[in-house]
Amino acid sequence: MASAEDREMMEKIGRLAGRINRYKNELAGFAPTPAGRPPHHTGPVDGWRARGFPHRGGHHSARMPVYRNKTLILNGASQQKQSGDQDAGATSDASSSSWVTKNDRHLQLINSNVYKRDAPVRTAAMEQARRQKLALRDKQERAKLISHLNHMVNSGGFGSANQQAAADKYEIAVQGVRFRVAKNGSKLIRVPGENNSAKATPKIAVVGGVRFYRSKNGNLYRHGIVKAQRQSGVVKKVNVPCKQFSMTGSCTQGPRCRYVHDPHKVAICREFLQGGGCQSGEHCDLSHEPIPERTPTCLHFARDSCTKPDCKYAHVKVSPAAPVCRDFGFYGYCEKGASCPDRHVFECPDFSNTGTCKIKGCKLPHRERASVLRRGAGGRDLSSMEEEDKEMADLSSDEDGESIDDDDVDSDEVDEFIGHDEHEGLEFAEQRDFIAL
């Protein structure tokens, strides 16, 4: 005869088995049959009635559809149900494992431990697939462009053929602006000329069904190259201070800026320099350390008339005929400090030293001095000098201020991403000097 402990254990096993069976039925979508109600048998008659056909008496008898609410709860908690005296006082075992829903290609339900274990492999596979897809699109885009150029050369509508030694001498015209084909067609270099200014370059151009984007110096770069360079996230730094960061203490480009962001070599706060205090306090992005490297020269000290014992300006005697320091003027910081032979003033160095400024949108003060104008003219006509400066501005690079728009492509970054391609790959059957589009 079984003991009381054995009977109690058998009852617990029975209750647990009942819960397991009900849970399996819920997963399969079956509802349990209520007690006291005979089971409903499905047959031809029920199917006939379910479609709403009348009986012999002429009355309609249509079955209402049965709605089942399928619920699946697996995230560490099991649902408890009360079903009479059988489940009274029963304890439920909570599931210790959690689940993750994955819906990238198709809906999946994965255990969290398995998901975390396979996450690095899955991420690497997705990145590899993205790179392969990008490389395939770039290859197709390049082939499409080269095919278009070959077709234009071989069409015979542009004069007699001229054999050339190098493929990088091919020129095309895009909306009236002439460009030289380079880097396997990935780059179109603007040909210098009177009608080929940087402003004349279209912001977006289509050549043979391939989109090109304008750079800051007026060149055109293929869409695939620009997209690959931006998605790579690789920015090659140059050992040149960032003008915006040095003068304001912040840069809108952030980590993607290719210039140096040195927080210890920023300009001095004008509010602190003039009034001795700053509303931002220690949260100010500019410097509050009045050292000779970042403070302008005291004009009163140069005339031996400074009476302030706590003067924040640099007490350095510099010749009035000395030029304006370029580092201090453009960056607000000069590493030479008190030993610098040039003047440390808040002025545009180019305009103060030469009388002209080639930087478009320059925000530094432009102060005209009669001595500089007399020395700079030298018997030359000022109007001719201005025309020459405009022409040179068209040939300047990004760093010289020839920035057409802020959202244009950075020429230096894209050139470094493309690299030096010795094999141009433009194998034209009949080579011509000029291709008109």
TrEMBL record:
GO terms for molecular function: zinc ion binding. Residues 236-264, 268-291, 292-318, 319-347 form the C3H1-type domain. Residues 384-416 have a biased composition (Acidic residues). The keyword Zinc applies. It holds the Pfam family zf-CCCH. InterPro entries: Znf_CCCH (IPR000571), Znf_CCCH_sf (IPR036855). Residues 78-100, 374-424 are annotated as: Disordered. A zinc finger (C3H1-type) spans 236-264, 268-291, 292-318, 319-347. Transmembrane segments: none annotated. It comes from Thermothielavioides terrestris (strain ATCC 38088 / NRRL 8126). This is C3H1-type domain-containing protein. Signal peptide: none annotated. Coiled coil: none annotated. Residues 83-98 have a biased composition (Low complexity). GO terms for cellular component: nucleus.
